Amino acid sequence: MIHARGLTRVFKLKKKETVEAVRGIDLDVEPGQLVAFLGPNGAGKSTTLRMLTTLLPPTSGTATVAGHDVARDPAGVRSRIGYVGQRDSAGEDFLVRDELVTQGRCYGMPVKEAAARADELLDLLDLAPLAKRRPGTLSGGQRRRLDIALGLVHRPDLLFLDEPSTGLDPKSRAEIWQHILRLREAYGTTLFLTTHYLEEADTMAERVVIIDNGLIIADGTSEQLKNDLAGDHITLTTSTEEEARRAAEMSGGGTAAGTTVRLRVANAAAALPECLRALDSAGIKVTTAETTRPTLDDVFLTLTGRSLTDDDISA
Ligand SMILES: Nc1ncnc2c1ncn2[C@@H]1O[C@H](COP(=O)(O)OP(=O)(O)OP(=O)(O)O)[C@@H](O)[C@H]1O
């Protein structure tokens, strides 16, 4: 569904200055996949999305999206993809249903077909009771659902969503995700989205692609990335700071802060009993012990030494 090779984008600034926003991306996304695209501010996510959706020509490299080349056949790409950007897509002049009908007409549908498609989407996204409202009177979550409906009017095979749940309250976020998952189940739509919320990418996406500094630095299922790149953690507290320092030294690579020791291991649940026995034999008194699975932020930290949340990640 997406096949990109060596995709780059350089922006020219004043006085021969340039910004290499995307520095050579290879990416293959198969039909029906749900991919979350993550990275810190300025990593190159929007630039990549804009190139894949034909809003911006690449400086070099190639990309085929939904069977069409982005440079040679941008109209072909646009006819097969939907794009839900961060800003509201609907205007204020029409009622909700009319917005959808007008969108269908813009795609060349006859009036009857556009009206039928609008009603289908109102049902799919639970917007039917709001059909006669103006977009400006909708809540944030309802407005997001309308944006998604507008992106789906022409039955795209592939939908790009730029931060679909950002700015919504937890209940509306959960609802948006329900709709995204329903869409995939009902129509097999391929979904490529950026999200601000690492835990959403972790639990909802079957594949996570992380970009940093214009390059893809990790690509896999969330579990693969966490197992391969971050590992589990054991967190212990000891009676004294001296004991914590010794425990961290014994583990080789652990860190101590006050009386808390943090160790990275492949399988924390299996390693914990042996770890406690070894510390006990060394005369170190452990007062509490807990195991934790890594997060996607731990993956990024391992890869780059920085936290994705440090600079308010907006994937
Ligand atoms: N039109 C432009 N002109 C010059 N530089 C640009 C332009 N658009 C983006 N950039 C630069 O390219 C780099 C990548 O930007 P991009 O918007 O793709 O990042 P992002 O990962 O989407 O960031 P954010 O999460 O903050 O939206 C940044 O350094 C940005 O300043």
UniProtKB/TrEMBL annotation:
Gene Ontology annotations for the cellular component aspect, listed alphabetically: plasma membrane
Membrane topology: Peripheral membrane protein
GO molecular function: ATP binding; ATP hydrolysis activity
Signal sequence region: none
Any Pfam family matching the protein: DrrA1-3_C
GO biological process: response to antibiotic
Keyword ATP-binding listed: yes
Identification of the protein by name: ABC-2 type transport system ATP-binding protein
Organism: Nonomuraea polychroma
Biological classification of the source: Bacteria, Bacillati, Actinomycetota, Actinomycetes, Streptosporangiales
